[in-house]
Design brief:
52 residues; elongated; 1 helix; mainly alpha
Length: 52
């Protein structure tokens, strides 16, 4: 949870179907995964328990 791009991927899948989803992943997948791994595991929508 808390990985960016999942919502966008599901939106693309709903808009274009499985084929559109595969094209979306082929175009943006590696970059989104790299960003997701670089970001902290905590979701931005959830307030972190430790103040920064």
């Amino acid at each position: 949870m808390g990985r960016p791009g999942i919502g966008s991927a599901s939106a693309a899948r709903r808009a274009g179907g499985p084929k559109g989803f595969e094209e979306f992943v082929a175009a943006r997948g590696p970059r989104l995964l790299r960003i997701a791994w670089l970001l902290p595991p905590s979701a931005p929508c959830e307030p972190s328990p430790t103040p920064r």
